[in-house]
Backbone:
């Protein structure tokens, strides 16, 4: 079980994948073991769904 009650919609987050890939974005919610967030992709806001398996999420 993951504890995400410290995150609220709109929080700036830093996400690190198990592969070491890192990205920044805005937290929206966690649903069905997926992080739902908005990240920056070359100047474009991208709605992203990322599996919680093996990732770390930090507030910025």
Residues:
């Amino acid at each position: 079980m993951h504890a995400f009650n410290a995150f609220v919609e709109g929080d700036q987050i830093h996400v690190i994948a198990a592969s070491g890939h890192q990205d920044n974005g805005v937290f929206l919610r966690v649903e069905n073991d997926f992080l739902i967030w908005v990240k920056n992709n070359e100047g474009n806001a991208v709605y992203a769904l990322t599996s919680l398996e093996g990732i770390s999420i930090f507030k910025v």
